Amino acid sequence: MSASKDTQRGTWKVYIRYKDWQGENQIHTKRGFATKREALEYEREFLLKKTKDVNMGFPQFVEIYMEDMKPRLKLNTFLTKKHIIQSKIIPYFKNKSLAEITATDIIQWQNKLLSMRDENNRPYSQTYLRTVQNQLSAIFNHACRFYGLANNPSKQAGKMGKAKSKEMLFWTKEEYLKFAEVIKDKPISYYAFEMLYWTGIREGELLALERGDVNLETRKLTINKSYQRLEGEDYITTPKTEKSNRVIELPEFLCEELEDYFGMLYTCDEKTRLFTISKSYLHRKMDRGAKLAGVKRIRIHDLRHSHVAHCIELGFSPVAIAERMGHEGINITYNYAHLYPSTQKTLAEKLNADRNKENL
Predict the structure, then answer these.
(1) Residues 145, 159: contact at Cβ < 8 Å?
(2) For 35-86, what is each residue's pLDDT tens digit?
(3) Contact (CB, 8 A) for 297 and 288
(4) Strand order of the sheet with strand 214-215?
(5) Inter-helix orientation angle 173-182/187-199, to 10°
(6) HSE toward the beta carbon, residue 38, CA cutoff 13 A
(7) What is the DSSP letter of 97?
(8) CB atoms closer than 10 angstroms to residue 69
(9) Which domains, and CATH codes, for the chain?
């Protein structure tokens, strides 16, 4: 029996012999168990994990899954996945083995999430629920594909939430200008929102910007990194996708505003981060400004939608807009076409005028 009393500490320990993935004999020792039962339970789970047995505990398989996935994911993607799994999935299934979880268990888990409320007493969004569902499905898909699990109970249970939001909100130029006017008393907020609206960059891209990324002479903005704060730590990572690495042409008025802003900074060398604020700070200023301006509250990310919508209204091609936004494909840009339905009317009028010229 591998469990024995640790007489020096007054606790229990396990001494486990096993073969690793290369077939080599290995020894693993673990101390500090309060009871013999706890020590033997640890030994059982350890051996199940090492042999990749689907009867191992669900939390133990999640450890294997995360070890398999970590080298394949960007750090921010991995940490986001880890947070969702630890906060929304593990607590519900922690006392079950991987193989014993059924579709009924998952339906009950879905119902639990559907009934939960956030700190503002609001239900989770449909897109967030779908994201959580996808994380659970990914775990079971991994188990089926590589570790011999017979079926994916998440697939049997059906999907929760929606893949996309029902409505894509945006501000017209007039709405944005009303908002911008009332936040001018907070310079860092004003210049941050100016960048978001007039360039269409992502929130993380904004917060990662350094002075060296802005060339006022050539009026160019280089996007090659993104800021994330995860698990209480700040991370500067690569942008969301390969196409997100891009150079954006800046309008002259925005360069003039940025020059004024640089002059306000205490230090401003090439490596100075331009906006040392948090995402929650921007959200609070969005709340305040929208209320004061009397415009509808949109998400920070909707400023990106607003920029695309404005470019559409100005008549720029989907190809040009996709390049500016760093979209992976032009089909993403086409998803915004409905934002300015009046464009279709203008298009028809121009076609009519062009056709009539032929008859003159």
Answers:
(1) no
(2) 888 888 888 777 766 666 677 889 989 998 998 999 888 887 888 899 899 9
(3) no
(4) 214-215, 220-223, 246-249
(5) 170
(6) 10
(7) B
(8) 16
(9) 1-51 (no CATH), 53-166 (1.10.150.130), 173-344 (1.10.443.10)
Structure tokens at 20: 């690793």
Residue 292, helix vs strand vs coil: helix
Q: Write phi, then psi, for 168 (nearest 5 degrees).
A: -100, 110
pLDDT of 150: 83
Could you count the other beta carbons within 10 Å of the beta carbon of residue 50?
18
DSSP three-state, residue 181: helix
Q: Is this model's pTM higher than 0.85 or not?
A: no
Residue bearing tokens 């915004």: 336
Nearest to 253 by CA among 332, 207, 194: 194
Distance of alpha carbon 346 from its chain centroid, rounded?
A: 37
- Tokens encoding 133: 């569902």
If 0-12 CB within 10 Å is exposed, 13-18 middle and 19+ buried, where does residue 198 land?
buried
Element (H, E) at 304: helix 302-313
Residue pair 79/230 in contact (Cβ under 8 Å)? The answer is yes
Distance in angstroms (rounded) separating the CA atoms of residues 138 and 145: 10
Q: Identify any residues that bridge with 29 across adjacent strands, giving them in sequence order.
A: 15
Residue pair 157/132 in contact (Cβ under 8 Å)? The answer is no
